[in-house]
């Protein structure tokens, strides 16, 4: 049957270039592998997670495994990697996700690690076991610093590895710099959990600089984490909406809270910026201005919201316009034609009936008393 999710036909995971010793079917249970940017981290079936964790640990030669920041969670963390996130690849291996058509999505350490907030220079795995659930769920951590485009018409999703903080400057470069990195594109089927990835090829010419400007932007989503607990943040959501709208220079009605989760004293929120009014998509200039502000680490909030961080913004095209209004009009016209068509013969019958003379009639007597009509006598 059809799946309500964006499904990827994931076949293999490679750690440091070496494939995990797993049956590919481990990633195909129930709904298969799901891409869900609304989920913060990634989750794998038990067997896949165990193999992934062991492969990563095997590549860590100088790091020490430590306890996680929250004792109520069994996080797998390592210290000694330093505070420079850009240098994580010197200590942690790169990871490749291989799809059914052989295409790969390469994950740098920032795409599967999160920072230990109690120990400086320590990081924890952002991929967790999914318990007895056979679903593989790839959350927002997997697409950090990745421009994700959703092609609903062709049931594909495109990944372009980039530095989101610098993307605004790149989009406005003319001409673009020589030899830019090629985007990594993979096709996703969002209706069939067992469908294969359809082939897709890298575009010719310098990628990425014009494409985001040329597409129709239906909405822009992003995450905002705040060091405020749930009970304090909930009553201030309207105030937060106002601040975000003000910082992004959009109407308050365009900003909507899409998701809300808490962990301890921290809150993670997902937001969406929609087109103004009843428009289906934003003007490119408006969309690029919003993206530029997000890339510059807007919005700037009041100190009363605690420390905060904005990350993982995503552009989505406008949803397909439903055909119901048009079909509804056709249905109404058809009903009118049917009523008119049926009323014509009924009206004609009524008219004919009214044209007939009103002849008197009386009760018919018994047969033997009926008199025969007399013949007309000739005129004299």
Automatic annotation (TrEMBL):
Residues covered by the Peptidase A1 domain: 1-160
Entry keyword Transmembrane: yes
Region of interest: Disordered: 171-208
GO BP terms, alphabetized: proteolysis
Single Gene Ontology MF annotation: aspartic-type endopeptidase activity
Residues annotated as transmembrane: 328-351
Alphabetical list of PROSITE patterns matching this protein: PEPTIDASE_A1
Presence of keyword Ion transport: no
Family: Belongs to the peptidase A1 family.
Cited PANTHER family: ASPARTYL PROTEASES (PTHR13683), PROTEIN ASPARTIC PROTEASE IN GUARD CELL 1-LIKE (PTHR13683:SF882)
UniProt protein name: Peptidase A1 domain-containing protein
Organism encoding this protein: Nicotiana tabacum (Common tobacco)
